[in-house]
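PT: before anyone asks, these are the final sequences, not the draft ones from last week. 837 residues across everything. Please model them as a single complex and drop the result in this thread when it's through.
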Amino acid sequence: MTRPVLAIAGNPNCGKTTLFNALTGANAKVGNYPGITVERREASMQFGDGDGREAQLLDIPGTYSLSARTAEEQVAITAIAGLHPYEEPDAVIVVVDATQLARNLYLVLQVLELRLKVVVALNMSDVLTKHGLKLDAAELSRRLGVPVVPISASRGQGIAALKRALAQVLDAPDDQVSSAVAPLPNGEVAAAIERVAPEVPSGWSRGDEQRRRSLACWALLSLDQGDELWHVPEALRAAVLQSRAASDFDFDQAVVSARYAWIDAAMPALLAEPPGVLRRSTDAVDKLLIHPVAGFTLFVLVMAFVFQALFSWSGPAIDAVGGFFDALGAATADVLPPGLITDFLTDGVIAGVGAVLVFLPQILLLFLFISIMEDSGYMARVAFLMDRIMKAIGLTGRAFVPMLSGFACAIPAIMATRTMERRRDRMLTMMVVPIMTCSARLPVYTLIIAALYPGPDEPGGSFLPGLSLQAAIMVGMYLFSTVLALAAAAVLGRTLLRGRAAPLLLELPPYRMPMPRSVGRMVWERARLFVTEAGTVILVCTIVLWALLTFPQDAELSRDFDAEQTAVQARAEADPSLDQDWLAEQRHQLGLARDSELLRASWGGQLGQAIEPVIAPLGFDWKIGIGLIGAFAAREVFVSTMGVVYGMGDEADEQSLPLREHIQAEVWPDGRRVYTPLVGLSLMVFFALAAQCMSTLAVVKRETQSWRWPLFLFSYMTALAWIASFAVYQGGVALGLG
Amino acid sequence: MTTSLADLPDGARARLISVGGERAWRRRLLELGFVPGTELRVVRRVPVGNVLEVELRFSRMTLRIDEAAALQVQSPDADAATSAARSAGAGSPSAEPDA
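LR: through. Structure below.
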């Protein structure tokens, strides 16, 4: 016997995900619905009476209705009804929030109209009971014609009864489906459905005339000139458009009203007393949390806390991951003989895995906060509070948390765009988040600012009383990136990602205590997706970059380093006043000089020299060009790459004095200084805007399921960076600041 | 007398007369229970977010204040007001089900 396929559907916030988790245990397979960025979760579950029968359970994205305008919304109808290219589920579990019964029943009616085997899981009926209200599940079952099982997903109650009901429904004959559908109005609607129904493909209707009419009705309500739906037969579309054009009758309102008439007629028999009082505790909390002053203050504090955690408190964990992989690389280098393979393992593979895992602390932390905010209901309030401000730049309130997280790191921030419903909003946010000043830019800014601008105790080092010039420049870079990100959102939102201004329709769910299990599960799934999907791209890029900066190995060097090594050795042996430390230092210096020459001769080095004509107008020489190429791995790699270029070794960091001094001393062939304060500014502006982060591009690729968006992101940011740096440098030179 | 939802004071109850606006949004509104005839109550407005919270059929939805202008409402008569006070926003739609 083949394993039956079950689908689980329900309104947003009805407890569907909690029930999914309770039914399946750990190890859901998380992927995407083909071609779009709607998450598809699937897992195996047991059902029946503890007799070990297994089914595959598919999680349908939370939805209020099956009608659709976008491909994302269409997932619900196609997956539930098993339209092309999906397999039809053998039965559907519809989760109903008993405290919002009327609205949840709307979806149940739509699913029943499709003539599927259905079990209704009546969630949160215990909440009603607690308030002294009784919902008559037997009466609901009688009216719907399908089993209704009261459950509490969060407490795991009623799960066994639900599994038994599923077995009963699956064992029943295939044609035993409920016909208790809401009667559709006569007249215009019925006539239109009769006109459209013949065009419903038989693959959709499966020979059931009632289902054919239901799908015709779905088409009548979903299709129009502007819809973005997939796999809709042209004849069906034409029939719907013709029917809609032929009359100005309001089909949408008539059909929806008929369903609600059925629901409203049933309600008094289901609930003796309507649950108007259930919101009392939530209301009290909301009075505070969305208060114009108190709520906003609290919101700022919460966001400051999240930001501080991402920005500072993740530091030790990031350092620990980095330190571990540095140590692992060093240990490997000690054990293995020096050579290309050892280099590949340490600088390619181990460094690459480290480059992936170093993002985990921030990803884990951000998703910990996001899932707590989502589960508790606070995220909906954040969207609520920020809506006016974010709308001004063409985004929704939900974009705020990803944008803010971008100040710490674009990787988790881009992953966080999933909390937004509309594809256009997600894309727009993803395209501007990488402009925010992430923490990887700080080492670069620190190095440049400390090397090129006077410190607070030096002449000219004060910008304003109490604010040093160096600090002012750092603050300026933050402001610059914020203004540019918002401007980019405003421009892209009116051009490439022009969308209809999305009207807001938001549910404020009641506050709930987040459940550690579901929070943990979400954090774990995010981390796993990042490591397995984006991580592989990052690893490959690290190895490619390593190869670029390592090969060719047989480059012609200006000096014979091997001979010099031998000479130093001989000299140390001949002169007893020279001790081991002297010898080690000499060999170290020779090694650094050799690495530096090899880097210049490498493909990456040649590339740096090849791009010099392009970056010279920005004030950069080819050595900076090599640094820019290295920075593609991650921006902070610029510092260590410059260390190698200048023969200081890759241990150099932004605090190291020799590197700063070297930068100050660097000259062009004609003797002019390479790094003037103006070049420093141009370089920082370039770093602020260029998409020099392969991990960001890898994550955008993973989230958009295409290479188009990361390519666009890279192109537009790099072009913007070049233009801005050009303007800064050439403008500065024209003003005589060069 | 009809007025727009956006103009209702906090706490006011009213009966929905008509729903306007762009099709997809309007359809979603209808499907969330905003069908003509439904009684609703303005729970509060949040000026900082420019939004308005509405209660209907025991659930709450939030709309932008300027977009709520597309919804026309009518103050319920005295009888309806009493029954609405009792049932906290239960709806009774205008469309007649097919007998």
